[in-house]
User: What shape does this take?
Amino acid sequence: WAIISELKQSFEVVELPLESAEIAADIDLLLVVHPKELSDDSLYAIDQFVLRGGRLLAFVDPLCMVDLQNQQQQQYMPPVPSTLGPLFDAWGIGFNTSQVVVDRKLATRIRAEQGTDVLPTVVTLTKQEISSEDPATASLNNMLVFTAGSFTGDGAEGLTKSVLLQSSDDAQMMESFMTQRNGADILKGFIPDGVKKNLAIKLTGNFKSAFPEGKNAAESEEESADQSKHLSISSIPGAVVLVADADMIYDA
Assistant: This one.
C-alpha cells in the first residue's frame, strides 16, 4: 500500500506478524490495518502496548471493498469484517461489524459498470464533517470513506473521547448485505435517524485492560512469571485513534 511507502520516508517502519504475542518496547506507535479474527494473544499484546503508554492508530472495517474486489468472482462470500472487539468493550466503545453507514446528503458519484452511480455508502466528507480542533485533521478539506462503520459510546471512565470524522445527520445504519446494490435501490428503504455517525474517534487518558486477570486465568509457573509484568490499568496515559474504514487508505 502506498501509505506504507510514504511512512517509510519519514519514520522507521517495522512490520509485525499478525499473530504477535508481544510488541517490542522500542515501538512508539502501532498502526493496525483491517485486523480480521485476531487471536487473544495478539489482542492482549495490543492491550498491553496501549496500557504502557503506546500510541495506537487502528483502521477497522465492517465491509472492506478491497477484500470484496480481490476475492474470487465465481462465488459471493461476504468479506470478513475487522474489529478489536474485546478492546473496544474495555474502552467503552461499541462497533457493529455487520452495519454500514448510509448517508444521503454526502453520497458520492462514482464510475460504475454502466456509466455512473451516486452511492450513499461512498461518503464524501467536507470540512463540516472533519474536526478542525485536532491537529491531525484540522488542515483537511475533504475525504472519501467507503462502506464505513460507526463507533458508539462515550468511552470508559478515565478516558476522554473526541470525534475526528463524522457523517451528516441525513444518515442511517444499514445491514452490510443490503448495501451491495445500486444507489437508488439502497435509498428505497432509507430512513434517516437524524444522528451523526462517528466515523473516526480519539481516546486519551488511562485505559483499563480487556484482560483484567492477565493473559490466562489458569497459568503455569512460567506463565505466572509473565503475569508479574501484566498491566491492568495504564502506567502512563495513552492515546488511541480508531477509524471505521480501512478502504480510505488503499491506493485503488
About this structure: The chain is about 20% helix and 25% strand.
